[in-house]
Amino acid sequence: MDQPLETRDALPDALRVLLRDYPREGWQRDPNFHGLASMWLDRHLSFRRLLGLMRTDAEALLDRRLDPQAWAPRLSRLGGHFVSDLHGHHHIEDDHYFPLLVQRDARLVQGFDILDRDHKALDGHLNAFVEDANAALRALEDEAALRTGAGRFHAGLLRLEGFLDRHLTDEEELIVPVILRDGEGALGH
Question: Where is the Hemerythrin-like domain (predicted)?
């Protein structure tokens, strides 16, 4: 079941089997929601917010509403935080949570394989993010080069935002129902 991140609209229905019993709109009312499931969703929300902040800042820079000297340290701080935290999050998932979760429901094995491939694909997108951000930051003293670099960074950021949102949504729809059904005790918590 090859479902590349860059072309996937959603996980296949066969992998969303638990979502029928645990639909997203009922998650917060479930007694097993508070704890690991809500923490997972909060973590994902923080990645989405960081991307949104960097996108808004890049747009403000390109529209000349944000001074390049104010933009540069903010991008460095937010971008570094984003990349470091996302790598750490994926590492914990790959090494700890995914192996435990895949044991909880054999029907989801292919879903976790897809998420694992997503992590590898996202590494490439994160590398491009870092390269584009660094190129724009190196061009601070040349307005034309900065506009070109910031435009390239913004375009890449939009792509990354879409890919990451697809991955996070799919991950949530695979993982949260398992946590709600089995409780976090099933995952060693």
Answer: 38-178
Express each pLDDT in 130-149 by its tens digit: 999 999 999 999 999 999 99
Q: How far apart are the C-alpha atoms of 121 and 117, rounded to whole Å? A: 6
CA proximity to 5, closest of 152, 127, 165, 126:
165
> pTM for the full model?
0.95
Cα 49 to Cα 53: distance, rounded to the nearest angstrom: 6
With beta carbons less than 8 A apart as the criterion, state whether 133 and 79 touch. Answer: yes
Label residue 11 by pLDDT band (50, 70, 90): very high
Token duo for residue 52: 């949104």
**How do the domains of the chain map onto residue ranges?**
33-187
Q: Cα-flanking dihedrals φ and ψ of residue 4, to 5°?
A: -60, 140
Token pair listed for 147: 């506009």
| CATH entry, 33-187, from 1.10.238.10, 1.10.10.10, 3.40.50.1000, 1.20.120.520 | 1.20.120.520
pLDDT tens-digit readout, 20-53: 999 999 999 999 999 999 999 999 999 999 999 9
